[in-house]
Amino acid sequence: MERHQELKRLGFFGILKESVKLVFSHKKLFTQISLALLIPISIILEVKILTAILFSFNMFKNRDEPEDLTVFIIPQYSTLNISYIASFKWVAFWLLSEITYLILLLVLSILSTVTIAFTTASIYKSKETTTFKKAAAAVPKLWKPVLITFLLVFAVTFAYDYILGPVLGLILRLLFFKKFAVLKIVIGVILTVLYIVVFVYITLIWHVGTVVSALENDIYGAKAIIKGRNLLKGKMKASVAVFVVLLTLSAGIDTAFVLVVVYETIRIWAVRIGVGILLVLLKLLMVLLGLVAQTVIYFVCKSYHDETFENLDDADDQKVPIDVQYEKLPV
Asked: Helix, strand or coil for residue 328?
C-alpha cells in the first residue's frame, strides 16, 4: 500500500528519478541485461546511422559529400526524383539492410522489453531480489503476446510514417514552392508540430501497451493498446514529458555520433574512436532508461487508478511467476 501511494504521487521528475534509482540500485542485474541485450541494440542503432549515410552516398547522383540522414527522413520521400538514383544495386543493398535491421531490432526489442518489464515488476512486487536467470526464464512465457502488440503498432507506425509522412512533405514543398511567406511558415510549423505530437503519442501508447502485454494475462494486441491508453489517462502529460526528454537526449547522441564519427569533426582518429565508443555507451544508457521508464510509467498509472499489483500468486499455471493482480484497492 505504501508503494502504491509513493508511485501514485510521481510526476515528470519523480518518474525520471525513480527510473534512474531502479537502474543504479540494481546495477549488477541491469548490467547483465545490458551486456546480453542492450549493447547489441545500441550498436545496431548506431550502425544503422552509418549505413544510411553510406547507402545515400552510393545511391544518388551528384553527391559530393555523404548525404545526411534527411535522405531517409520521411518528408524527403515526397521530393525524391527517381532520376537522382545512380545505382539500383545499392538500392537493393539498402532494402536488404533495412529488412535485416528491422528484424534484428524487433527480436532484440521484444527480448529487452520482456526482460526489463519482468525485472522491474519483480523489484516492485517481491522483497526478494530477482536475478537475470529468473528474468531470462520468463521470456519464453511472455514473448508471444508482446510480439503481437509490437507488430500491430509497427503496422500503424509504418502507415503513419510512410503514408502521412510523404503527404506532409509534399504539403510543405507546395507551401514553400514560390514565396517564403510568413503565413506559409506558420502553417508549416503547425503541421510539423502536429505530426511530431501524434508520433510521440503513438510511441508512448505503444511502449505502455507492450508492458501491458508482458505483465497482464491474456491482454495483447489491440486490447493491450486500449488498456495502455486508458491507464495513461491522468498521467498523460508527465508520461509524454518523460518520453520527449528521453527521445531528445537520444537524438542528441545520434547527432553527436554523426558529427564525430562520420563528418570527422575530431581529426585525431584515436580520440574519434574513443568518443564514438562513449556515445554508444550513452546510447545504451538511454535505451535502458527508456525501457525502465516505460515500466515505471505503467506502475505509476496503475497506482493512479488504484489498481493493486502486490498480491502474489505463485501458481504454476499463471503467465509469470509473480502474477500481476488487477483488483481495485479497498477504500
From this structure: strand
Gap between the Cα atoms of 11 and 254, Å rounded: 28
pTM of the model: 0.79
Q: What's the CA gap between 41 and 58, in Å, rounded?
A: 26
* Cα 178 to chain centroid, rounded: 38
CA neighbor of 239 nearest in space, from 296, 199, 284, 193: 296
| SS3 category, 85 | strand
In this structure, how many other beta carbons lie within 10 angstroms of the beta carbon of residue 208? 26
CA dist 226 and 182 (Å) reads 40
Between vectors from CA 227 to CA 224 and to CA 230, what angle results, nearest 5°?
150
Question: What string of pLDDT tens digits covers the 331 residues of the chain?
Answer: 567 788 888 999 999 999 999 999 999 999 999 999 999 998 898 888 888 777 777 666 554 444 444 444 433 444 444 455 556 677 777 788 888 888 998 899 999 999 999 999 888 877 556 788 888 888 888 889 999 998 998 888 878 777 777 777 777 666 665 565 666 677 777 877 888 888 888 889 989 999 999 988 888 889 999 999 999 998 999 999 999 999 999 989 988 988 888 777 777 888 888 988 999 999 999 999 999 999 999 999 998 988 876 543 333 334 444 344 433 333 3
